[in-house]
């Protein structure tokens, strides 16, 4: 990658606050946005996460002005822009599909927004080159999109979006068309650049790892609604709804009995998170890393399978109830575990979410 | 094994060449015959009298100029009608794409004589305002070229991601006109050029409607000349064919990819 330009040069506009208020959008009978409200702090990167069709891209496009709303308001820096056309919103957008103009070089693509803003040619070229340097593509400035790889095209698209010093940067699954290695590299690049420029950013993705790694806060959406908006660790450890608990990360559903704010699972009492089913038979949602598996000749559980994943191992265990659960252990701890080995199972005493046994 | 592998391309190559020669012969032989006929003189001699006569016949020159003007107007009218309509349909009402396609292909199914019968009253009405100029033929020609131009422009639009490019342009601050002029049109240049060539070729060859509506276009004058002087008539026809051929060559050169440009994709 090329050398990073200094924040003083690039950060021409401080991050602004964004408020999406009670947004509604219908596509025929489908309620794509169902009262969605999100507030993004100045300079913050919020990742919107959710399954396909949950409305996350619709929300981003509404903020960009590329889709209309049927209800609700959008405030940027306190100004209502709900009915402002897309070309007057000052939003930098990087799309999922490759969106560079094929008839322009990388430099011309980056300078295009500046040309529309009537920036003088020399200054335009200087700023375009500076942005390409920021994304590590200074040497490819004269190349056409078809002469660049997918990752390079998305970097140029990011430089183009940032060149206009947008009020808000909108990233609509910009990494989804790239292979895993490039994806990881570019994810870190985007986060670094976002911190350098300090632009308020909305990042839409269906990739949990991406969302949790990049976001200052992560919003989980389902059926056009925001289920929870929280820092990654909080979202992972203290989900507020059943959907979040089940959607984010791997989860075991283990039978237990809830009572007095706790759930009894295989003899271990675990505190219940707010919003959990509070009484009676329940399924406790327990993360694989909260499950402890130790070799025990007299243990009531048995190992079904062991998968080696490098530094960690995934162990599938059959409980005395017949349920199958997964445990994630350090590779060294799993060395003695083999299929059919008798083991004892315990759980870390951290709060868990519980759902109805019938659900 | 190796020898067999080496020998295999030979018959393919021969077949290719044979097909190429057959096609070129099919296309060029009539033109050679036309050239031979148009340069015949008295008692087996050769001369260029018929070709020289093209430049000295004022009716013919007028007809050529008129046909070129009609062709230019048809191309402009067709592009102004089709490019924004097809782009807008693609962006805003994609479910109407089939309807637009059907409407554009309709002129193929309607015989020219039926079209004339239907359109003649319109032209009587038009002539009271526009003075009966042959240039008004551009209106009906725009309709005639729709099926061919639609296909060419549709190919251009399908070769790029129009919705994403339009969204990118708008998000950067471009209004719809700029998006059309600076983002969409330059990237469907190949389709537009093909549509323009097809339109010009069709207009230069159109006879039925011009004749029935009593306009003196190139084809009408060539037909009249053919009754008076077959040599000049054939010389003009050949000139028109060569003109269309040169146009196609120009398009092949100007269209994206016409001058070979190998992609040099750089790995990450």
Can you tell me about this structure?
The complex is a heterodimer of chains A (359) and B (268). Chain A is α+β, with helices and mostly antiparallel strands and 359 residues long. Chain A has nine helices and 20 strands. In chain A, strands 6-7-8-3-9-10 form a six-stranded mixed beta sheet, with helices on both faces. Chain A has a five-stranded antiparallel beta sheet with strand order 13-12-11-14-20. In chain A, a hairpin with a 2-residue loop joins β12 and β13. In chain A, α3 (106-116) packs across α4, α3 packs parallel to α5 (150-163) and α5 runs parallel beside α6 (180-197). Residues 1-12 of chain A have low confidence and may be disordered. Chain B has 268 residues and is an all-alpha fold. Chain B has one domain: MetI-like (MetI-like fold, Orthogonal Bundle), CATH 1.10.3720. Chain B is built from 13 helices and no strands. Chain B has helices spanning 2-7, 9-38, 49-56, 58-92, 97-109, 112-130, 137-158, 162-171, 176-187, 189-205, 208-212, 218-228, 230-254. In chain B, α4 (58-92) runs antiparallel to α12, α8 (162-171) crosses α9 and α12 runs antiparallel to α13. Chain B is globular, with a radius of gyration of 23 Å. The interface between A and B is medium-sized, with 40 and 24 residues.
Give the arrangement of secondary structure elements.
The complex is a heterodimer of chains A (359) and B (268).
Chain A: H1 7-10, E1 18-27, E2 30-40, E3 45-49, H2 56-64, E4 71-76, E5 79-80, E6 91-94, H3 106-116, H4 121-134, H5 150-163, E7 168-172, H6 180-197, E8 200-205, H7 208-214, E9 217-222, E10 225-230, H8 232-237, H9 242-247, E11 252-259, E12 262-265, E13 268-271, E14 280-286, E15 291-295, E16 301-308, E17 312-318, E18 324-330, E19 342-347, E20 353-356
Parallel strand pairs in A: 3-8, 3-9, 6-7, 7-8
Antiparallel strand pairs in A: 1-2, 1-4, 4-5, 9-10, 11-12, 11-14, 12-13, 14-20, 15-19, 16-17, 16-19, 17-18
Helix pairs in contact in A: 3-4, 3-5, 4-5, 5-6
Chain B: H1 2-7, H2 9-38, H3 49-56, H4 58-92, H5 97-109, H6 112-130, H7 137-158, H8 162-171, H9 176-187, H10 189-205, H11 208-212, H12 218-228, H13 230-254
Helix pairs in contact in B: 2-13, 3-13, 4-7, 4-10, 4-12, 5-7, 7-10, 8-9, 10-13, 12-13
């Amino acid at each position: 990658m090329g050398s990073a330009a200094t924040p003083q040069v690039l950060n021409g506009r401080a991050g602004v606050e964004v408020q999406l208020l009670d947004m509604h959008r219908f596509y025929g009978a489908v309620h794509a946005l169902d009262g969605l409200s999100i507030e993004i702090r100045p300079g913050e990167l919020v990742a919107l996460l959710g399954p396909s069709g949950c409305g996350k891209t619709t929300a981003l496009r509404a903020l960009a002005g590329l889709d209309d709303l049927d209800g609700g308001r959008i405030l940027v820096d306190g100004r209502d822009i709900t009915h402002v056309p897309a070309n007057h919103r000052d939003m930098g957008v990087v799309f999922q599909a490759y969106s560079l103009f094929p008839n322009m070089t990388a430099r011309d693509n980056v300078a295009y927004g500046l040309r529309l803003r009537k920036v003088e040619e020399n200054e335009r070229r200087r700023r375009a080159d500076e942005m390409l340097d920021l994304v590590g593509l200074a040497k490819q400035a004269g190349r056409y999109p078809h002469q660049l790889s997918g990752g390079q095209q998305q970097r140029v698209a990011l430089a183009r979006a940032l060149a206009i010093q947008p009020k808000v940067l909108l990233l609509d699954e910009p990494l989804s068309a790239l292979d895993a290695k490039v994806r990881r590299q570019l994810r870190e690049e985007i986060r670094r650049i976002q911190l350098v420029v300090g632009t308020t950013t909305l990042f839409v993705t269906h990739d949990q790892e991406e969302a949790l790694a990049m976001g200052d806060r992560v919003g989980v959406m389902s059926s056009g609604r925001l289920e929870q908006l929280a820092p990654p660790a909080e979202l992972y450890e203290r989900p507020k709804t059943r959907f979040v608990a089940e959607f984010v990360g791997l989860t075991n559903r283990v039978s237990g009995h809830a009572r007095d704010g706790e759930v009894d699972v295989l003899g271990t009492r675990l505190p219940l998170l707010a919003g959990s089913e509070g009484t009676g038979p329940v399924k406790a949602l327990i993360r694989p890393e909260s499950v402890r598996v130790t070799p025990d000749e007299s243990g009531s559980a048995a190992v079904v399978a062991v998968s080696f994943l490098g530094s960690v191992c995934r162990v599938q265990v059959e409980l005395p109830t017949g349920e199958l659960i997964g445990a994630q252990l350090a590779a060294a701890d799993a060395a003695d575990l083999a299929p059919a080995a008798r083991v004892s199972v315990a759980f870390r005493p951290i709060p868990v979410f519980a759902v109805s046994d019938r659900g | 094994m190796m020898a067999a592998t080496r020998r295999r391309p030979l018959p393919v190559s021969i077949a290719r060449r044979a097909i190429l020669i057959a096609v070129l012969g099919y296309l060029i032989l009539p033109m050679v015959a036309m050239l031979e006929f148009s340069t015949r003189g008295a008692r087996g001699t050769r001369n260029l009298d018929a070709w020289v006569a093209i430049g000295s016949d004022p009716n013919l020159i007028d007809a050529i100029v008129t046909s070129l003007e009609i062709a230019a107007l048809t191309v402009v009218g067709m592009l102004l009608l089709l490019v924004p309509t097809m782009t807008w349909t693609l962006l805003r009402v994609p479910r109407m794409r089939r309807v637009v396609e059907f409407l554009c292909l309709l002129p193929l199914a309607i015989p020219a004589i039926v079209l004339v019968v239907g359109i003649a009253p319109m032209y009587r009405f038009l002539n009271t305002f526009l003075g009966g100029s042959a240039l008004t033929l551009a209106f009906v020609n725009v309709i005639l070229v729709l099926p061919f131009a639609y296909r060419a422009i549709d190919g251009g639009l399908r070769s790029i991601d129009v919705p994403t490019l339009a969204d990118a342009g708008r998000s950067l601050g471009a209004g719809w006109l700029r998006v059309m002029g600076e983002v969409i049109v330059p990237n469907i240049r190949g389709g537009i050029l093909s549509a323009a060539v097809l339109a010009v070729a069709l207009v230069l060859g159109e006879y039925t409607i011009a004749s029935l509506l009593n306009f003196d276009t190139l084809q009408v004058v060539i037909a009249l000349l053919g009754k008076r002087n077959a040599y000049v008539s054939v010389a003009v026809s050949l000139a028109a064919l060569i003109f269309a051929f040169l146009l196609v060559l120009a398009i092949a050169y100007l269209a994206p990819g016409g001058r070979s440009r190998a992609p040099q994709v750089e790995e990450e």
